[in-house]
């Protein structure tokens, strides 16, 4: 039937929970070293918007954004300096909003 069953490893779920508690946006970048990512941040003039770069796996990094920086805003600025890199946005604010909306619509059903 083409259905795909997937789950998140406990370690990854714990990482996501930590990111949500921290409340800061994260831009996940794959395919580049931390050094190359730092260079791209400098070239795009967005190095000041990232608190730190955390290594998630080989050639996979999480760019932890400052409190007033949205990860999705970095994508069009930094992306061209990292050609072909898959970029993923993790926004605790959006996740909380989506969960609140889902909980609200569940209450309407009951």
By DSSP (H or I, 4+ residues per run), the number of helices equals 4
**CATH-level-2 architecture:** 2-Layer Sandwich
**CATH class annotation:** Alpha Beta
End-to-end CA span: 31 Å
Order the strands across the largest sheet as they lie in space: 2-3-1-4
Structural write-up:
The protein has 110 residues and is of the alpha+beta class. It has one domain: 2-Layer Sandwich (Alpha-Beta Plaits). The protein has helices spanning 10-22, 34-43, 71-78, 92-109; strands at residues 26-30, 50-57, 60-65, 87-90. A 4-stranded antiparallel beta sheet has the order 2-3-1-4. Helix 1 crosses helix 4 (92-109). The relative contact order is 0.20.
How is the topology of this model organized?
Blueprint: H1 10-22, E1 26-30, H2 34-43, E2 50-57, E3 60-65, H3 71-78, E4 87-90, H4 92-109
Antiparallel strand pairs: 1-3, 1-4, 2-3
Helix pairs in contact: 1-4
Short description:
The protein has one domain: Alpha-Beta Plaits.
Throw out a few tags for this protein.
4-stranded antiparallel sheet, alpha+beta, Alpha-Beta Plaits, globular, 4 strands, 110 residues
